[in-house]
Amino acid sequence: MIIRSLLYVPGNNMRFIEKAHMRGADAIIVDLEDAVPVSQKTEAREALNTTVPLAGKNGTPVFVRINNTPDRLFVDAEAACRAGAFGLYIPKVENADLLDKMAAFLQPIERCLNRKAMVFVPLVETPSGVLNAAEIARGKRVLALSGGGEDLATSMGAKPVPQVLSLPKQLIHLAAKAAGVYSYGLLRTVADYADLDGMREAAQEARLFGFDGASCIHPSIVDVLNNAFSPSSEEVEWAQKIVAADKNAEEKGVGAYVIDGDFVDAPIVARAQAILQLADTLQNKSEGDNG
């Protein structure tokens, strides 16, 4: 599954939810947490049977960001499960024990509904969570890790500026990659959506670091993320040249060589192959969407 962009929509805003599937995002996150006032959280949860199918009307995977409070955590999760959500965004995860408990709670419900098991995207948003990120990434049902910039900065007594968020987000990213799960995020806060140039630079930076995609809170950023986390035509052309040259070198029994003045060996070939695989997957996805 390739997810480059995940668009948050408030779970209490039907107008946004109705249009979510038209925004071009690879996934939608129906938010029950920060985007919903406390007075409307229960109503938003009770509406999931309507909002989840509506947000994923065109087949787009739909996550639900639940509330991590004792009175809402499992109730929100059950409602999301019964509504058919693909997965859960679980905020403020500090250890894998929470994921174990959530998986055990959902399993009998999923069995009763005869549905696939939901996947989890733990949001790491505290210093404890960052230090336990490797454990969390290896937890049950984890599809990806992500860091919550605003909450993370607040929990540190800091401001959510790039120089504050870069290190903890890189640690979360490394934990995800070490565990073999996806890594979603930017090395800055997603709240700066009005700074289009800044968001574009941040997305390109995240791709450079090896992030797989990122979430956004405004539709204007969806194309920015899709473009940044997709191989450019120049990258594809470079990768094709490398793979072709490697095949020729292998036939000659050569393991390392120079192309256009640049040294090439096995890791560079592997990078080129990954670019072509991603480009091919995205091309097939596009053809499927248009078919």
Biggest beta-sheet profile: 8 strands, parallel
In DSSP terms, counting alpha (H) and pi (I) runs of 4 or more, how many helices? Answer: 13
- Taken together, the total number of domains comes to 2
CATH class (first level) name of the largest domain: Alpha Beta
Q: What CATH architecture label of the largest domain applies?
A: Alpha-Beta Barrel
Approximately what portion of the residues adopt beta-strand conformation?
5-15%
Overview of the molecule:
The protein is α/β, with parallel strands linked by helices and 291 residues long. The chain folds into 2 domains: 5-228, Alpha-Beta Barrel (TIM Barrel); 233-290. It is 51% helix and 14% strand. It has 13 helices and 10 strands. It has helices at residues 14-20, 41-46, 48-55, 73-83, 97-113, 127-131, 133-137, 149-155, 162-179, 196-209, 222-228, 233-251, 266-290; strands spanning 5-10, 27-31, 62-65, 87-90, 119-124, 144-147, 182-184, 214-216, 257-259, 262-264. The strands form 2 sheets. The chain has an 8-stranded parallel beta sheet. Strand 3, helix 4 and strand 4 form a beta-alpha-beta unit. Helix 1 runs parallel beside helix 3 (48-55) and helix 3 packs across helix 4 (73-83). The longest helix has 25 residues, at 266-290. It is globular. The model has no long low-confidence stretch (mean pLDDT 93).
Features of the shown structure:
291 residues; alpha/beta; TIM Barrel; eight-stranded parallel sheet; two-stranded antiparallel sheet; 13 helices; 51% helix
